[in-house]
UniProtKB/TrEMBL annotation:
Domain (Photolyase/cryptochrome alpha/beta) ranges: 25-150
Name the record gives this protein: Deoxyribodipyrimidine photolyase
GO terms, biological process: nucleobase-containing compound metabolic process; response to light stimulus; response to stress
Residues the record lists as binding FAD: Y230, T244, S245, G246, L247, S248, F278, D379, G380, D381
GO molecular function terms noted in the UniProt entry: deoxyribodipyrimidine photo-lyase activity; DNA binding; FAD binding
InterPro entries: Crypto/Photolyase_FAD-like_sf (IPR036134), Crypto/Photolyase_N_sf (IPR036155), Cryptochr/Photolyase_FAD-bd (IPR005101), Cryptochrome/DNA_photolyase_1 (IPR002081), DNA_photolyase_1_CS_C (IPR018394), DNA_photolyase_N (IPR006050), Rossmann-like_a/b/a_fold (IPR014729)
Pfam families associated with the record: DNA_photolyase, FAD_binding_7
Region Disordered, annotated ranges: 1-20, 512-534
Length: 534
């Protein structure tokens, strides 16, 4: 993002504009990442308690200037969602969405000073959002309405967690009657187009879906019709693009609630493996989000202190840059990283592969990699991205470290070489049999097809087998100590395992010794099973 011609967008609405709203004050519904009007806890609460509501979204410069962590494509997706939210309010007879700009606390304070209440949906966020929400609660009396299925009212959040989430899924959605309340709006001169101009938002990504509830509902409808094919589509990066739900960005921005998706699929999809696998992933969504609620440190500190700073002494900016550019010499990693940069999406297995190769094979500090994902993913969700990164890297200290072999992934998931050729076109002339390890292609073949490894395409930036062995040794040397730390209550709580403190303690009891890793602790990866959160 670069500041455009219109960079001087002022803070809005001004206090005078807010004061000029005719009639008695009501309740501001402060939308953040819940861009819908159905199953919305804060909106339902406001509509029940007030005769007048004013839905508000505040464009916060912190997300648009150099501090912002999102690529332009995610910002554009957000802007689609906002236009759609404005339409949703108008479609039920309301005046639409009010757009503010500036520090959200300054903007909200103008409403509070004019006698308005403010309510927002409670949502786990990183440090910035957490501080913002705490200040909003303390200084302005903003009320945060829970209702997202996460457990907040228990000392041990994981006690009966699955049952509680299941009851939330089964409960009726939050409801409100648009006829019983006046939906107000104030003109501020701010809207997504002006914000895009002011901050120079201009995505270069391709194939990014349109944001908003309408597009989300259409995607959900189509996916539900073909849900039987879901299990067979998950692992291949090509099949997954159409075969998985494609709902992650819509869920991240709350165009649909996770509960709405669950209910729709539960009622309409045929029973079978596709349905049950999909539903289990909706639980994972809540499971990983609960983790961030339980411990905000997931975003920047190793959850298990034994692994804090792991790989830091090996930080090599050239290796990191090669990984980011998709020039590691491992075709499946390179294709995936280029696909991520160009489209903002990757299926689960390729995300896990790229994280694994980055941390286990290139042996680079995890956070730089996680931040890169977070920047480029359209569905970049702090709660899922950083917790998944730490889990995939093995920073929790659970047994069963997942090491992905990038060459095996070509053979298993792209046997015809379609994905690799699409994203690494310089390898297209190479016979498919050599796409898993191009550096081993006989020179005669390289000459014949006109692809010279080391020139058109790099040799692997590290030697795979020795790097893997070295990592196992380094990781294994401290694994017993890491597992032991899970036995302590503070670390067990922050690890937020689905089995709760007891699960963490039993890992500590079984594996917690300073000895080297047992052979079966480092296994070839499997897609995460439902058991992982049960
Ligand atoms: C390193 C890494 C980083 C990731 N970062 C994100 C992220 O920032 N945002 C994000 O939404 N997902 C993330 N995931 C999880 C997963 O890859 C995506 O949710 C999925 O690929 C999105 O595509 P889909 O909506 O078609 O998924 P589907 O297979 O259709 O799944 C439906 C929904 O279930 C949830 N879900 C699926 N898999 C997982 C999972 N493993 N963990 C938690 N929830 C899951 C998502 O909300 C998803 O939209 C990450 C995974 C890894 C390994």
């Amino acid at each position: 993002m670069t500041a455009g011609d219109d960079a001087a967008l002022s803070s809005a609405p001004e206090a005078e504009t807010v004061r000029s709203l005719a009639g008695p004050p009501g309740t501001v519904v402060w939308h953040r990442k819940d861009l819908r009007i159905a199953d919305h806890p804060a909106l339902a609460a406001a509509a029940h308690e007030s005769d007048r509501i004013l839905p508000l979204f505040v464009f916060d410069p912190a997300f648009y200037d150099e501090r912002g962590a999102a690529c332009d494509a995610r910002i554009e997706f957000l802007h689609d969602c906002l236009r759609d939210l404005d339409r949703q309010y108008r479609d039920v007879g309301g005046a639409g969405l009010t757009y503010g700009h500036g520090d959200p606390l300054d903007v909200l304070a103008r409403f509070v000073d004019a006698g308005w209440d403010v309510v927002a949906s409670a949502t786990p966020t990183g440090r910035y959002g957490r501080r913002r929400d705490e200040r909003a609660r303390e200084r302005l009396g903003v009320d945060f309405a829970a209702g997202d299925g996460l457990v907040r009212d228990a000392a041990r959040t994981r006690e009966n967690w699955s049952d509680r989430v299941e009851s939330w899924f089964a409960a009726d959605p939050f409801d409100w009657d648009p006829r019983s309340v006046a939906v107000e709006r104030v003109e501020t001169g701010v809207d997504p187009d002006r914000v895009s101009d002011a901050y120079g938002v201009a995505s270069t990504k391709t194939g990014v879906p349109t944001g908003g509830r309408e597009a989300a509902r259409e995607r959900l409808r189509e996916f539900t019709e073909s849900i039987a094919e879901y299990p067979g589509s998950i692992s291949s990066p090509l099949d997954a693009r159409e075969g998985t739900s494609g709902l992650s960005a819509y869920l991240r921005f709350g165009c649909l609630s996770v509960r709405e998706v669950h209910r729709y699929v539960d009622e309409r999809a045929p029973d079978g493996r596709g349905k049950s696998m999909f539903v289990s992933r909706l639980f994972w969504n809540r499971h990983y989000t609960q983790k961030l609620l339980d411990w905000p440190g997931w975003l920047d500190r190793a959850v298990n202190p034994v692994y804090e700073g792991f790989n830091r002494d090996r930080h090599d900016p050239d290796l990191v840059a090669a990984w980011k550019r998709g020039e590691t010499g491992f075709p499946m990693v390179d294709a995936s990283m280029r696909c991520l940069r160009e489209t903002g999406w990757l299926n689960f297995r390729m995300r896990a592969l790229c994280a694994s190769v980055y941390f286990h094979i290139l042996q680079q500090p995890w956070r730089i990699g996680a931040d890169h994902f977070y920047e480029h993913l359209i569905d970049g969700d702090a709660a899922i991205n950083y917790t998944q990164w730490q889990s995939q890297c093995g920073l929790v200290g659970r047994p069963g470290l997942r090491l992905y072999d990038p060459r095996k992934q070509v053979r298993d998931q792209d046997p015809d070489g379609e994905f690799v050729s699409r994203w690494v076109p310089e390898l297209d002339p190479l016979p498919t049999a050599h796409l898993d390890a191009p550096e081993k292609t006989p020179l005669a073949v390289q000459r014949e097809v006109g692809v010279r490894i080391g020139e058109e395409y790099p040799y692997p930036v590290v030697e795979y087998e020795s790097a893997r062995g070295e990592f196992r040794e380094r990781y294994g040397a401290v694994y017993g100590a890491a597992a032991a730390r899970l036995g302590g209550e503070a670390i067990a709580r922050r690890a937020s395992l689905s089995g709760g403190i007891e699960a963490a303690r039993s890992i500590a009891a079984e594996h917690g010794q300073p000895a080297a890793l047992r052979g079966d602790d480092v296994a070839e990866s499997q897609q995460t099973g439902l058991d992982d959160f049960e």
